[in-house]
Amino acid sequence: MIYDVIIIGAGPAGLSAGIYAARSRLNTLIIEKGVDGGQIATTADVENYPASIPNETGPSLVARMVEQALNFGAKKVSDEVVEVDFSHKIKLVKGKNAEYKSKTVIIATGAVPRLIGCPGERELTGRGVSYCATCDGPFFQDLEVYVVGGGDAAVEEAIYLTKFAKKVTIIHRRDELRAAKSIQEKAFANPKIDFIWDSVVTEIKGENMLQSFVIKNLKTNEEREIFPDEEDGAFGLFVYIGNIPSTNIFKDIIQMDRGYIITNDKMETNIPGVYAAGDNRVKTLRQVVTAAADGAIAAVQAEKYIEENF
Ligand code: NAP
Q: What is the pTM (predicted TM-score) of this model?
């Protein structure tokens, strides 16, 4: 079986590509290794996607996108792509479970959260250290939580965490947030949110559960250890310090800049018939709306490529 389009990744870019490709009657396969939606699946509030409904969450938006793509006839499988061979006209996509062939491929693999990279982080992930407020926020009902980062994600998720936590402290490495002004204003106005400026987390400690962590003030070099409130005995550390593109398997095959895939404005990569869409490519704005736009463009270009080459 040779597909017209294989889309790797079922985030907004991949699902949008799936909607456009399947609607054009292309034989379309979407391959997703984990949970549909990619990073937006772990986002509590989506209030800036055009026509998002009141109280729109990442999962609710994604569920409608998936339904739309499947209704147009796209197929979706759960598999992890581990290798690709783009050296022939028919492209080969190797998953852990099966091999797939296609006339075109749209790489919509997105990005994953960047880790702090300090001692203790990996060991205590899921044990008090989290990268997903939507998933883990409810565990911290009436406890304190700390959020690392100063971008849109850190500040928005800090606001979301105030629904559960008794206090949320944002730890940022500078004395000024990177987040959009409108998001900053909400955070500054929220009485449950506090800030620790000019500081980074240098060590995370705990036996089985997060027990304390060390922060360092980058201006004074002073280090101090932060513990939970004595009465609580537990607290949470949420990390939102940006993302890393999921493009490792395309290294040496697709042209990239610091791990981000280089495309032109038609989403074409250096290989004819292979496109990239969404957060994994070099671009200026990484949002659901721009990911969806990339996906649409890539699918339309794939259709043109097939018309001209097959
Ligand atoms: P981001 O915009 O890249 O911000 C990353 C933040 O983490 C920055 O404040 C950065 O500090 C800090 N940081 C980076 N490396 C660090 C390290 N090693 N240690 C400590 N701090 C570190 O990432 P993001 O907030 O995840 O957002 C990613 C993209 O998604 C952005 O384009 C963003 O606009 C978009 N997004 C949009 C929305 C929305 O519009 N509703 C929501 C979420 C995300 P510096 O500021 O000092 O560089």
A: 0.83
